[in-house]
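User: Fold both of these, please.

Assistant: Here is the first one.
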Amino acid sequence: MLTATQKKTAQAIINIFETSTVLGDYGSVTVIPGDTGHLTFGRSQTTLGSGNLDDLLQRYCSNPGARFGVKLSPYLPRFAAKDLRLDGDRHLHNLLRASADDPVMRETQDVFFDLVYWQVAERVAGQFGITSPLGMAVVYDSTVHGSWKSIRDRTVQQSGQLAALGEQGWIGAYVQTRRQWLATHQRRDLRPTVYRMEAFQRLIDQDCWGLELPLVVRGLEISTTTLNATPPGCYDGPQPGSRTLALQASLARGLDVRLVQLGLSALGIDIKTDGIFGQRSARCIKDYQASQGLPATGVADAALIARLVA
């Protein structure tokens, strides 16, 4: 069994692979051309195509405390049907981004990804005889990224059994086998992901089998400090209406900005809910004010915010 810190470190490595962040990007929304998973969301990038995104959102919307449950619930039948038109639904994408500010969504993702990926990886690693924290991270990565079983069998065929090679020797052989498989894969989008195996190889070369902190993976620090920080891009304030929003030298960021952007998005306005009040946000506010016969200042006061934030 890994310690709690070793588990968080192993998960942080895969978070870095998936979303280039130590804690994971809970609001990450991506659609990669050619990706069979189609619309992808969350800390460990679960997909529409696999059906796991439907499962995640069903769990979230069933929680009475889910802040965005009412807004996301109408989409659930389409997620269940794997409606690929959701790939291009920009307002849905904005809803998903905004939901990351909700602690209920973050907790739902943590529990879901632990159940769907970590516990599965823990079980198959234990059955195969892999016990080291770094070895567990390698298995977890393949559970999230896919094809653990086929690459495991290929490694055994090409290099031998774990009992003969020892865990460290076998994991090293597995990483090289998977790297070659990724580099020559028929899917072009998978080939660049050899960086995952290159990162593991560096950890192997540095003898980091216990995942002792601090570590640097792909240029990002994994330490006690970074593991206990606030997830990137998540806001717990200020509350809507508690301040006026305007374009300024130091851009306003926060929950109130995100919810104003989401209100504009619900009206069909082309804006991304990134929680940052920049040039685009000011322009959209100005256009909205003009459409409503209001002074087109580009400044959102408490009254305007109340109109936009339901």
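And the second sequence with its predicted structure:
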Amino acid sequence: MAIRTQAAPGAYEFFAGGGLAGLGLAGFRTLFANDIDPAKAASWRANHGGEIAVGDVWDLSATDLPGRADLAWASSPCQDVSLAGAREGLAARRSGAFWGFWRLIEALDADGRSPPVIVIENVVGLLTSGQGRDFGAVCEALAGAGYRVGALEMDAVHWLPQSRPRLFIVALRGLDGPMSAGPAGPFHTPRLVAAQARLPEAAREAWAWWSLPFPPRRNLDLAALLELDAAVDWFSETETRALLALTAPLHRDRLEAARASGERRVAAAFRRVRVEAGAKVQRLELRLDGLAGCLRTPSGGSSRQYVIVCDRGEVRARRLTGREAARLMGVPDTYVLPAGQTAALKLMGDAVAVPVVRALCDGLLRPALAGRAVSPSPAGRVPT
């Protein structure tokens, strides 16, 4: 007699970009993917094969979605809820794409095909956008559809040498997931706890403090992910001096100490505009803690990240490459990047870190679907 094997759970991936969420969703098979950006969709095809629907989520209907997925993943646009953006909230055109996604979920529900697991990934600015009303609206919509709702603030720094906090709203219906009795570190941060306390009553009643195992100690630093010195283009001495002239006194002192040590020290740096003595001043801000700053899309010069290397008393500078950015997102070198550096950096700057998705998948999503849960963390004091 033939042995019947259970098919891998299926997933719909909305706002899929280059498919990094799919790389982290180990054990899932993608039933449908979409993105509005043709360039990102081309990268998705190059690395995942198959087809991806290119276009606005508002132009999709439930009939475009095949079968019944176990998971709907939505990394909806974050520009209008980011702490670095204009903070127009979910009413803004780009972040309002969430409601285009939610319209599809409601249509699937009416068709008896709603997924039992929904994940909404966004920047942590969603917690306070619109004085907390945007986060409340998302959680209230999920709760109103019968989902148990919770959220985790997960920073890629636990797995990768990049500071990249992101918010993951996880909703389960008809399933049990690992949870703790109350908020517990490291994924229930004070700002998440504060946001949960501001939720509408219906959303608070449906709330769950989802629990994930504490991540293992990270064993990578920025230097370990960089290309060999001979394989990259360095700035000229004149360009390097001009760049370093932008450093504020404190950062300049730190860089000078690293140079004077004679040891090889690697720093990541961003150009930012600061207000000093009432005037806007462009400054180069460095990190010498082995971490890169949060990758962003290269929409302007201040969004490009630099690599500063002190070695045997000399200082050299260059731009971070697209391949290095991909490594900082946990992407293997076999991943096919766009040919241009700007396109590669944009692809990575808009994406979700692969190991973070993998941890969420292994610790919560697949156990919930399998009808089991990992040992939950005890409720504890929220980190300050």
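The radius of gyration is 22 Å.
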